[in-house]
Design brief:
The structure is a single chain. Helix content is 75%, strand content 1%. It is mainly α. A two-stranded antiparallel sheet has the order 1-2. It is globular and about 50 Å long. The C terminus is likely disordered.
Length: 331
Amino acid sequence: MIRLLERPIVHFALAAATALVLPLVLRSGTLASEILIYGLAAAACNLLLGYTGLLSFGQGIFFGLGSYAAGLLLLRAGWPVLAMLPAVALVGAATAAAVGWLSIRRQGVYFVMLTLAFSQLFYFLAYTLSDLTGGDNGLLNVPRPALGGQPLSNPWTYYAFVAVLFLGLFAALQRVALSTFGRTLLAIRDNEARASAIGFPVRTFKVAAFAISGAVTALAGALHAMLIGVAPLSNIEYHTSETLLIMTIIGGAGNLFASVLGAAFYLVAGDLLSAIWPRWLLLLGALLVAIALFMQRGLWGLIERAAALVAREPDPNAASADATLPEESRP
């Protein structure tokens, strides 16, 4: 059962099942689209955090730039959607490569602080350049142009468009993670010094991971701008980066579908709890503490434990934990 859950085809099948089930269990097409959009952005964040070991607070930069680029190209340049999306991905990849190239020159807390500083820099640039970004009001009236003669104004029609892009980009990210490139990222995460010693260009791989993550995150930002009809200033601030990191941690780092799971849990819980208690983020904070203490692999780790119990197999998380104990301390 555990081996079945580890198969990439199962993860893609779960992503496809999520896209098919959401319209059946949710009344809001907007919320369903948000889950897939943020799930995509969280999966891109996971490529850095879970696969490369980089805790970046700069994901909001690429998400916000994607929103602004989409708004400007659609609203002022009049580009069609299919031409706008590759341009947005290119903007996200180029910006992420530049931010990554500068940030990876430092490690640990200094790397984190650099990405946070870049996040603040881009936020104040967006706030200052109000002629382009709309400043505090954001870029308003971002349209949803028709695609192949089919208008995207209906929430569920737009959801279908988002779902197709989500599955295509998820498959692409999965292909990257399973490739030699992805395996090398795991080697860098586990032991960067050894990876460098055997000849891997570590910096080049990290910058490439940043570029891929930035491109996908920018596309998610573009989809979000078309969804809500505005490219808000809040999309580019560091709170967006925090939200994406929280989604990734809740779902489980090192697994792309877990990011989708974390995004769905965060957004659905927020939608339900905010109607009951305006301070629902306190409950989210308590949940994060519980995950940090008892579920380091997030919701996906919980699913693996449940599958192990059903199949009566040893818990892989417990086994890996025992392996780190001194021999005399093992049960």
